[in-house]
Amino acid sequence: MPLNRLFIPLTLLLCLPIHAQEEEKKRKGPGPEDLPTTSLISQPGPSFRVPRAEVGEHAKIIVFGDQRFTDPNNTKVTNPKVRRLLVQRIAEEHPDAILMNGDVPYSGDVVNDYAVFKTETEIWRNEHLRVYPALGNHEFHGDPQEALEHWWNAFPQMRNRRWYSVELGSAVYTIALDSDTSLLKGSPQLNWLNEQLTHLPATTRFVFISLHHPPVADFQIRINVSHNPRPNEIELRNDLEALAPQIKAKIIVSAGHIHNYERFERNGVTFLVSGGGAASPVEVERASDDLYQNREFPNYHFVEFELHGDKLEGKMYRLADANAETPTWELKDAFKISTK
Q1: Number of domains into which the chain is organized
Q2: 86 within 8 A of 297, measured Cβ to Cβ
Q3: Which residue in 13, 16, 74, 116 has the most C-beta neighbors within 10 A?
Q4: Is the peptide bond before 298 cis (omega within 30 degrees of 0)?
Q5: Is residue 224 part of a domain?
Q6: Residue 25 · residue 142 · CB < 8 Å
Q7: Which positions ≥6 away from 172 have C-beta within 8 Å?
C-alpha cells in the first residue's frame, strides 16, 4: 500500500474541521443527515423499470458528476461553456441512461440553479433521454429540507425518495444512493441496498451504484484533503467488497465530489471517481493503485459504458481544450468488465 494512504499529517486533521465549519455556514439548521428518513419510499425490488424493448441489446450508460448548474455568469465555481459542451456531446451519444453523481446544482437552495439545469439540458428532454441523479452535498445547501424539496420539484419522479433503483432492460440494474445520510451498518439505506443486491433479477449481469462522496479515491495529503473518503463511504466500500463474491452480477461504483477522474479495481468491484462535469477542476496526486495515471489537467469528462454480451466496455472521453473554438474529445481511458 502506498505510503500516502497510511500517513495522515497534521494538516489533514486541521483541514477536516475547517471544511466542516465551511459546510455549516451554508446551512440554516440541521444537516441532511439529520432529516428523518422513515417516511421515504424505500421498498424491495426496483423503484423503476425500463422494458428490455426500450433498451436494446447493447445498453449504453453514461456517468458523470459535479456539473454545478448555476447562473452562466458565474465562471468561478463552474465552467458554463464546458457544461453545455458536455450536455451536447452526451446527447449525441444517445445513451439509454445518464447517471449523475451529485452536485447537479451549485446551490440546492437556489431555485434558479435548477431552472438553469432545465434550460441547458433541454436537448436531453427533446431526445427523450433518461436521467437518474444522485444527491450530492451541494443539493443540500441552505435549509436541507427546503433544498430537498427543490430537488424533488426538479426531478418529480424521485419525490419522497433519497435513494432508488432502476431495472434497465434485462442485463443492467442501477442504484442511486444518498451519501449525505448514513451508509453505516444497520442504517435504513444500507439495509435497503443489501436487500436490492441480494435479490437482483435473475438476468442482471451488471449493477451500477452512483453516489456523490467516493468510497475509494487517491488519498490526498496536500491538495483537497477534505474530500478524501470518509468513514460513511468506507463502510459502504467494505460492505460491497464483502457482498460482491456472493452475487452473480458485477458491481461498478461511480462517485463524484473530487473534480477529476480516477479508476480502481478492488476485490472484484470497480470504483470510479467521475467528477469532471464542469465544476472548478482539482488536481490529484495519484497512488499506484489508481488505474488511470495520465497527468493531463483539467479532466473535464464523461464515462460511457456499452454492453456487449457478457462484457461491459468502459471509455472515458476527455475534453482536450476547454478554450478551443471547436471542441475535441479524446479517448483517454478504456477498460472492460466481464461477468463472472
Answers
A1: 1
A2: no
A3: 116
A4: yes
A5: yes
A6: no
A7: 55, 59, 61, 97, 204, 205, 206, 207, 208, 307
Beta strands in the chain (DSSP E): 48-50, 60-64, 97-100, 131-133, 164-168, 172-176, 206-210, 250-255, 261-266, 269-274, 301-308, 311-319, 329-338
Q: What is the pLDDT of residues 75-128, one digit of tens each?
A: 999 999 999 999 999 999 999 999 999 999 999 999 999 999 999 999 999 999
- Which domain does 78 fall in, by range? 3-23+58-320+328-338
Question: What dihedral angle (degrees, nearest 10) is formed by the CA atoms of 200, 206, 208, 214?
Answer: 110
User: To the nearest whole number, what is the mean pLDDT of the chain?
Assistant: 92
User: Residue 37: inside a domain, yes or no?
Assistant: no
Report the CATH number at residue 94. 3.60.21.10
Classify residue 286: in a domain, yes or no: yes
Neighbour tally for 161: CB within 10 Å: 19
Name, in order, each residue with C-beta under 8 angstroms of 60's C-beta and a sequence gap of 6 or more: 93, 94, 95, 96, 97, 304, 305, 306, 307
